[in-house]
Design goal:
Radius of gyration: 27 Å
Number of strands: 15
Largest sheet: 6 strands, mixed
Strand content: 5-15%
Structural class: alpha/beta
Helix content: 40-55%
Strand order of the largest sheet: 2-1-3-7-10-14
Number of helices: 29
Shape: globular
Distance between the termini: 51 Å
Length: about 675
C-alpha cells in the first residue's frame, strides 16, 4: 500500500547534513536497498547494525521503524519513531512514520496530528497525504479523505493504490460515478488488484447495476479465491436480490476465511434476522460486537451502533433499536442499512409512516429494495425479490413519500452552465448545521435534473475551509478564482448555493459566510465576507448569476430543541444590512431570512425550512398561474407565505426570506 520511498540520494544527503560516520551510512544504505528489493529481514539487520554502532543516530531508528511498518509491527515502529523524535525533534520522516503506525493501530487523531506536523516540517510528498487520507477514512470523515487522496494523486498520478482508496471513499459517500471512474482507472494501472474490483462491485451495486457488480465480485474472487471481503460484497448483492441461500453460503465462506473480521458476522446476522432465525442472528451479532470491543477506535462509530441496533431488534427492544439506529444515521447519513434498521424500529413501535419513510430512504441509497421482507411488503414489492432494477439510481438522499427528489421536471442540457454548491455542517468551533450537506446534495440533484447542469460543471464543497472558498470565489488580492476560470463569457449561467452558518462581525457590522475552520468570535478574520462574495461574483462574465444563501446573519442560530442560541459569545442579536439588497443590481439573490431572524430547521422533512420550500416551489408549487414556468416573483411570494407561516407555527418566530431580482425572470421552466 506504500509505493512511495525516500530515494537513496536523499538519504545520503540527510546523513551528510548531520555529519554521520561513513560506516553508518553504509549500513543504512544497504538497509534501504534491501527494503526496495523487498528483503525486509536483511534491511532490519542492517538498521540494527547502524543503531548498535551509534545508539544516538535518529535516522537509523526512523528507517528501522519503516521496516517494521512493512511487517505491520506497529508497536515496534512506534517505539523507534518515538526514539527518533526524541533525538531529532524536527525529523519530519519520523513524524510521518509514526503517523503511519498510528493509522495501523486505528489511533486516527494521533495519526493526523503527526502527519500535520510532518507537513509543517516540510514533508509534502504523496505518502503523507495518502496516510492522512487513510486516517480520515478511519474517522469516517470521507470528504476530508477524498481531498487528501486527491492531493496525493496530483503529486503521484500513477499511484493506483491512492485512486483505489479514493474510489472507496466516493463509494461510501454514494458518489458512485466518481467511485467507478477512480476504480476503473486503478484497474487499468493494476488489473490484478482484487480489492479494486471488489470496491467497484460495491459502486455498481449502489447504482442498481447488479450484473456488473456480480461480475466484478467474481473477478475479484478469480484473482484471489480467499478474499473474504469479496464474498461479503457478493453475499450482500445476493441478499438484496432475495437469493438468501446463496448469500448465506457466501457469508459463511467469508467468516471461514476471516473469522475475526466484523463484516461477515454482521452481514450474516442481518440475513438471519430477516429470515426469522433470532438465535442464530443474536449469536453472530454478539460475536461481531465482541470483535469491535477489542478495537478502541470503533467504540463510538457507526458499525458498533448498527450492531447494537440490530441486537436490540432481535431482542424486541424497539426503543433501544431506535436510539442506536438514530446514532448510526447521525454518524453515517448515507448508510442504507442504518435507515432500514431505523425503519424496523419505528415499525416495531407502531409508527408505520415513519418506517415507510426510512425504508424509502434505504431504497434510494441502495438503488434497490430493502432486504427485510416486511419492508418490501409495505413498499408494495413482491417477495422474494429476484433481481434489483438495473436503472441508474439517484446518488442523493430521498425523504420518503414526500420526497422532493421524486418526479422532478427534466430539462435539456445546459452544457455551459456552472454551479457552486456548498454545504457546511460539521463546524470546528460552532454548532452543527443540521441537514446542510443533505440540502446541498438535493440542490445539486435539482441542478442536474431540472436545470440541465452537467455534473462536471458543478463545484461541490462539503465542509469547506476559508482557503477553499477563496480558491473558488477568489480573494481581495486575487478576485479570479476557480469559478471565474470555469465560466465561458456571455454563455455560462451561474448558480451559487450556500447552506451553513452566516455571522455578523462585531467589528464592522457586516455579514460573513462561516467556513468550517472559522471562529465565529473572529469572523472578520476567519470568515468569508458577503461583500467580497458579491464583488467577486460581479466580476465573473456570466450570462446570468443566481445566488441562494440558506443562512442567517443575526449572530443567533437554531438549536436542536427548536430554540435559538448565540453563535458569537456574549453577544446579542443585531441587524446586519439586508443580505439580498447588498448584491449588485443585475444579480438574482434569495436568502433564508432578514434582519435579526434565525434560519430554522424542518426535521419532519429532513431539510432546512428555507431549502425545503425553495425546492418544493421550484418543483412546480410556486407556479401560481400554471403556465409551466416558475418565475422569481412567484417563487418569492410562495417562499414568503410558506416559510413565514411554517416558522411561526413550528417555533413561534419570524423568518421572512429575502428575494432580489426581476419578478418576471424565469427560475425554472417545467415543461
Amino acid at each position: 500500500m506504500y509505493p512511495f520511498r525516500v530515494s537513496a540520494i536523499a538519504v545520503l544527503v540527510l546523513f551528510a547534513l548531520v555529519g554521520c560516520n561513513p560506516g553508518y551510512v553504509n549500513h543504512v544504505n544497504r538497509g534501504h536497498a534491501y527494503m526496495q528489493s523487498g528483503n525486509n529481514d536483511m534491511a532490519l539487520a542492517e538498521f540494527n547494525a547502524a543503531i548498535a554502532a551509534n545508539p544516538q543516530y535518529a535516522l537509523a531508528y526512523n528507517n528501522r521503524a519503516a521496516a517494521y511498518l512493512n511487517q505491520n509491527e506497529y508497536d515496534l515502529a512506534l517505539a523507534d519513531c518515538n526514539r527518533a523524535i526524541e533525538l531529532a525533534p524536527k525529523l519530519n520522516l519520523a513524524y510521518l512514520n509514526r503517523g503511519r503506525a498510528y493509522v495501523g493501530k486505528q489511533k486516527y487523531d494521533l495519526a493526523i496530528a503527526d502527519l500535520n506536523r510532518a507537513m509543517e516540517l516540510g514533508f509534502m510528498q504523496a505518502l503523507v497525504y495518502m496516510t492522512r487520507g487513510m486516517a480520515y477514512l478511519g474517522k469516517e470523515q470521507y470528504g476530508q479523505a477524498i481531498r487528501d487522496f486527491g492531493r496525493a494523486i496530483e503529486l503521484a498520478p500513477s499511484a493506483y493504490d491512492v485512486r483505489c482508496l479514493r474510489g472507496f471513499a466516493y463509494c461510501v459517500r454514494k458518489q458512485q460515478d466518481s467511485a467507478i471512474a477512480d476504480l476503473s482507472r486503478t484497474i487499468e494501472f493494476a488489473p490484478h488488484l482484487a480489492v479494486a474490483y471488489c470496491f467497484r462491485a460495491r459502486a455498481y451495486s449502489g447504482k442498481g447495476e447488479t450484473e456488473l457488480a456480480l461480475a466484478d465480485c467474481n473477478k475479484a474472487l478469480e484473482i484471489n479465491p480467499e478474499f473474504a471481503l469479496a464474498y461479503v460484497y457478493r453475499g450482500g448483492i445476493l441478499h438484496t436480490k432475495g437469493d438468501y441461500g446463496s448469500a448465506l453460503k457466501d457469508y459463511g465462506r467469508a467468516i471461514e476465511l476471516a473469522p475475526e473480521e466484523v463484516a461477515g458476522h454482521a452481514a450474516r446476522a442481518s440475513l438471519y434476522y430477516d429470515q426469522g432465525f433470532a438465535a442464530a442472528a443474536l449469536r453472530d451479532c454478539n460475536f461481531a460486537l465482541g470483535i469491535l470491543a477489542k478495537e478502541e477506535a470503533h467504540l463510538n462509530q457507526s458499525p458498533r451502533c448498527g450492531l447494537l441496533g440490530l441486537k436490540a431488534l432481535i431482542e424486541g427492544d424497539h426503543e433501544a433499536a431506535l436510539r442506536h439506529s438514530r446514532k448510526a444515521v447521525e454518524l453515517n447519513p448515507r448508510s442504507s442499512s442504518a435507515y432500514e434498521m431505523r425503519g424496523l424500529a419505528y415499525y416495531g413501535m407502531g409508527q408505520t409512516s415513519l418506517a415507510v419513510s426510512d425504508w424509502h430512504m434505504a431504497q434510494s441509497l441502495r438503488a434497490g429494495s430493502p432486504s427485510h421482507p416486511e419492508a418490501r411488503r409495505l413498499l408494495g414489492m413482491a417477495e422474494p425479490v429476484t433481481r434489483v432494477p438495473t436503472r441508474a439510481a439517484p446518488q442523493w438522499p430521498s425523504w420518503g413519500a414526500d420526497s422532493l427528489l421524486s418526479g422532478l421536471p427534466t430539462s435539456e442540457q445546459n452544457p455551459e452552465a456552472v454551479a457552486v454548491v456548498i454545504g457546511v455542517e460539521n463546524y470546528q468551533e460552532a454548532p452543527k448545521v443540521e441537514y446542510a450537506v443533505e440540502d446541498a446534495e438535493a440542490v445539486k440533484r435539482y441542478l442536474m435534473t431540472a436545470f440541465g447542469y452537467r455534473d462536471e460543471n458543478i463545484i461541490f464543497l462539503e465542509n469547506p475551509g476559508k482557503a477553499d472558498l477563496e480558491e473558488v470565489f477568489g480573494s481581495v488580492a486575487s478576485p479570479q478564482g476557480k469559478l471565474y476560470n470555469w465560466v465561458k463569457p456571455g454563455k455560462s449561467d451561474v448558480f451559487v448555493y450556500y447552506a451553513g452558518h452566516g455571522a455578523p462581525s462585531l467589528q464592522d457590522k457586516k455579514g460573513y459566510l462561516v467556513p468550517v475552520d472559522a471562529s465565529p468570535d473572529y469572523v472578520h478574520v476567519s470568515g468569508y465576507p458577503l461583500e467580497l462574495l458579491y464583488a467577486n461574483l460581479a466580476k465573473v462574465p456570466a450570462r446570468s448569476m443566481t445566488v441562494v444563501i440558506d443562512a442567517c446573519f443575526s449572530g443567533a442560530v437554531a438549536n436542536a430543541q427548536g430554540g435559538a442560541e448565540m453563535l458569537i459569545g456574549a453577544a446579542s442579536p443585531f441587524v446586519v444590512p439586508a443580505v439580498a439588497e447588498e448584491a449588485p443590481a443585475d444579480m438574482t439573490v434569495l436568502t433564508a431570512g432578514t434582519g435579526s431572524q434565525v434560519a430554522s430547521w424542518y426535521p419532519e422533512k429532513g431539510h432546512s425550512l428555507f431549502t425545503y420550500w425553495f425546492l418544493k416551489g421550484l418543483k412546480g408549487e410556486a407556479d401560481s398561474d400554471k403556465d409551466g414556468v416558475v418565475r422569481l416573483g412567484e417563487l418569492g411570494g410562495y417562499l414568503s407565505e410558506n416559510v413565514t407561516y411554517t416558522a411561526r407555527r413550528l417555533y413561534g418566530r419570524e423568518q421572512t426570506p429575502e428575494v432580489k431580482g426581476k419578478p418576471s425572470a424565469e427560475m425554472l421552466r417545467l415543461k
